[in-house]
Request: fold
Amino acid sequence: MKLLEEMILNQGVILEGNVLKVDNFLNHQIDPGLMEKIGNEFYEYFKDKSVTKVLTVESSGIAPALMTAAKLQVPLVFIKKSKPSTMNDPLFCEVYSYTKQTTVTLCMERRFLNQEDRILFIDDFLANGQAFMGVEKMIKETKAQIVGVGMVIDKAFQKGHAYIVDQGYDLLSLAKISSFEDGVIEFD
Amino acid sequence: MKLLEEMILNQGVILEGNVLKVDNFLNHQIDPGLMEKIGNEFYEYFKDKSVTKVLTVESSGIAPALMTAAKLQVPLVFIKKSKPSTMNDPLFCEVYSYTKQTTVTLCMERRFLNQEDRILFIDDFLANGQAFMGVEKMIKETKAQIVGVGMVIDKAFQKGHAYIVDQGYDLLSLAKISSFEDGVIEFD
Reply:
């Protein structure tokens, strides 16, 4: 997605540990027009997959996932990063966040997924794939099926990309970064 | 907003401590069609206020705030509930969450607001107004101006509603709950 790549080149900042900071338009301040275009891209690619639910992880996944769910006209479920006191029958998963260097508990109500569900998982970033693997484990428990994976920014040189492709999932990455060498962002 | 009131009556669950659980369509699973209608309502009410930025607090505020920002064609900034390691010059505020019975640190990059900004603050719930007061304090530090406050669900019998009205802010609440007496939800 050309526009997204240009915004990453013009406004992205590379921090230590291959962290790409894009808080001008995706992770903190959000560009709603860009989110609509992102939703359209995911919609066009996954519209024939009979998606019944879009899933994401709070918080930065919500905006692109919401615009995708709005186009597909299906509900969005956002997985939480802590167990709210008001959950009845939660699914849990512990995942390690390399960015935050800490373990995070992913959590969602079991009743929002069932074996009839065809899930499109959308997230803002793919790096080592820890969040994806956690979500995959939770979805498996409900016997729902992952029919697509949409990543806004895919640091494809890290482990997550290969994992998702190796499992045979249909992955669409809107900005696929092949390297950060010498502080220069290269797209695939 | 009739549709929202009906969804609250049909799907909302009242928990201990006047907590209203609406995780079927707002706080965990999100109904994107409802969010579009919510965005339209806020847009129609605030469109002549020359809003330059929509502000909300992660995570449940993001969906209604994004749809509002998309209609207004202005950026959305979501305030974080912890300090990410990648923030440069953050504004902080400690607020008490009655629902979670704990203190939460609100945090945002200072550079996203300046004295020219005209802020529309959108949130999913108004109860005791602690989050609003924290955000108000942070906004004051930047000398930006709050020109409107939009709440999806306003538990108007708690302290937040009176506080916002008393300060003279222009408040639109899409579902204004006057009481929860005997487990029956009454709207104003």
Q: What stands out?
A: Chain A touches chain B through 35 residues (CB under 8 Å). The first strand of chain A starts at residue 13 and ends at 15.
